[in-house]
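Human: Respectfully, please carefully check these C-alpha cells:
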Amino acid sequence: LTITFENGCVAQFRASGTEPKLKYYVEVSAGSSEESTAMAQRVAKIVVAEMLQPEQNGLTKKPQ
C-alpha cells in the first residue's frame, strides 16, 4: 500500500510473506539531510499513530 500526501511525503506499507510483521517506509524531501531526517521521523510517528493505531490493534514494535 502506498500513500502520497499533499506535501509530497510518501508512506509505503509492506506485509512480510513469511513472518507475521508489517514493514513501513517513509520518503520525504527537504532542504538538507537533517531536515529530511526530522521530517521523516515526524511523518512516521503520525502514520503509525493515526493509520496503524498500535494500541487499538494489538501491534507491538520489535525489540531493538
